[in-house]
């Protein structure tokens, strides 16, 4: 993956304890009767006033979601500030710089959306935009996402476990893998226009999991973060979050989920097979050929200094997934 020196705008100190701000905002929303009422409510009144971007296209607006709060919140987990989560992104369809997607995805249109689940299933399923928020009970999960570039964030995701969606589609016994695909729309995603403007990746971006990995209770289809629908730069309207794997497995803006009997191709593996394997489990013992994976920089307050460098943990600390890889040589199956 490209390593770029951050722009000065990303380096500003941000000492706000976002946890407090987040909880306060929740209280306010509750007070207004927003949380727990409808499913989708506009949290930003700009829409109502007809505010549009400078080029006359409507700007993307996140909306408040109702969901079951994570019990983990009460333990005062130190979250990555929302401002960092939404401005430091890898989404090559919108540029290769960390601060590109927040700008380039500003007008991304997600409604209407169509997500299909098909392939080796008994009952193919299609979800439209509204279904993404209403077909399953939404819950909050506080997960760390660890990028292969050796930084990590702790994010209050909102979504539903992928296994609930798989259950609906009823995989056939011949299904062994799950293949995911991102939207292909070069009109909206400038990185898809020319091969090398999008980091040299082939588009659409594709990813894959073994069926048992996909069905693991930790594997989340996320439709929101920080209490609201996903901003486009984080993969609106729906993206995968697999917390024990390097970030690139967590494919954004998904339009297709297909059950197959063969190991699916994955975008980063196609680009550099010796650097990015299919499994991509977070593993401090196995270095990337070009850099160490032994430690990571926790993106918390945005400090310039490495006070936030911590040792990386096997499976990113989610050790309950270890049985999935029993008997497998994790240095070989990277
Ligand atoms: N379609 C698509 N999905 C993607 C990527 C991408 O470039 N395109 N980048 C991946 C990488 S490398 C990471 S680290 C995570 C980043 O997710 P975040 O920006 O929400 O933190 O998204 C992953 N999903
Ligand atoms: Mo990443």
Helix/strand structural class: alpha+beta
CATH homology-level superfamily? Oxidoreductase, molybdopterin-binding domain
* Topology, number of strands: 14
CATH topology: Sulfite Oxidase, Chain A, domain 2
Number of helical stretches of at least 4 residues: 7
Unreliably modeled segments? 1-21, 28-53
Please provide a brief summary of the model.
This protein is α+β, with helices and mostly antiparallel strands. It has seven helices and 14 strands. It has a single domain, classed as Sulfite Oxidase, Chain A, domain 2 (Alpha-Beta Complex), CATH 3.90.420.10.
What does this protein look like?
The chain has a single domain, classed as Sulfite Oxidase, Chain A, domain 2, CATH 3.90.420.10. Helices cover 13% and strands 21% of the residues. The protein is built from 7 helices and 14 strands. The longest helix has 14 residues, at 18-31. The radius of gyration is 19 Å and the shape is globular. Molybdenum atom binds at residues 1, 90, 147-149, 247-248.
List the helices and strands and how they pair.
Layout: H1 18-31, E1 40-42, E2 63-65, H2 82-85, H3 100-104, E3 114-119, E4 125-128, H4 131-134, E5 139-146, E6 151-161, H5 162-169, E7 177-182, E8 206-210, H6 211-214, E9 220-225, E10 228-229, E11 239-241, E12 254-260, H7 267-271, E13 295-298, E14 309-311
Parallel strand pairs: 3-12, 6-13
Antiparallel strand pairs: 1-2, 3-4, 5-6, 6-9, 7-8, 7-12, 9-10, 9-11, 13-14
This protein binds the ligand Nc1nc2c(c(=O)[nH]1)N[C@H]1C(S)=C(S)[C@@H](COP(=O)(O)O)O[C@H]1N2 and molybdenum atom (MO).
């Amino acid at each position: 993956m490209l390593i770029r020196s951050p722009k000065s705008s990303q380096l500003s100190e941000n000492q706000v304890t976002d946890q407090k701000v987040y909880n306060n905002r929740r209280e306010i929303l509750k007070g207004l009767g927003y949380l727990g009422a409808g499913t989708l409510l506009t949290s930003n009144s700009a829409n109502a006033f007809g505010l549009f971007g400078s080029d006359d296209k409507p700007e993307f607006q996140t909306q408040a979601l109702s969901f079951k709060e994570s019990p983990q919140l009460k333990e005062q987990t130190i979250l990555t500030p929302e401002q960092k989560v939404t401005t430091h992104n890898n989404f090559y369809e919108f540029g290769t710089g960390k601060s590109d997607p927040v700008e380039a995805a500003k007008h991304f249109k997600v409604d209407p959306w169509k997500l299909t689940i098909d392939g080796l299933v008994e009952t193919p399923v299609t979800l439209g935009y509204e279904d993404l928020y209403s077909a399953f009970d939404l819950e909050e999960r506080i997960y760390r996402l660890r990028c292969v570039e050796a930084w990590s964030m702790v994010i209050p995701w909102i979504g539903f476990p992928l296994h609930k969606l798989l259950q609906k589609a009823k995989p056939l016994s011949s299904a062994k893998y799950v293949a995911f695909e991102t939207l292909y729309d070069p009109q909206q995603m400038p990185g898809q226009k020319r091969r090398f403007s999008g980091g040299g990746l082939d588009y659409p971006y594709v990813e894959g999991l073994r069926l048992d990995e996909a069905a693991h209770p930790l594997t989340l289809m996320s439709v929101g973060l920080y209490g609201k629908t996903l901003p486009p730069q984080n993969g609106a309207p729906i993206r995968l979050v697999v917390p024990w794997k390097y970030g690139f497995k967590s494919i954004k803006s998904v339009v297709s989920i297909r059950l197959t009997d063969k190991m699916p191709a994955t975008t980063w593996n196609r680009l550099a097979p010796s650097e990015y394997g299919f499994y991509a489990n977070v593993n401090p013992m196995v270095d990337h050929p070009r850099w160490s994976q032994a430690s990571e920089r926790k993106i918390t307050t945005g400090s310039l200094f490495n006070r936030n460098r911590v040792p990386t943990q096997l499976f990113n600390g989610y050790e309950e997934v270890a049985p999935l890889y029993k008997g497998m040589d994790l240095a070989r199956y990277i």
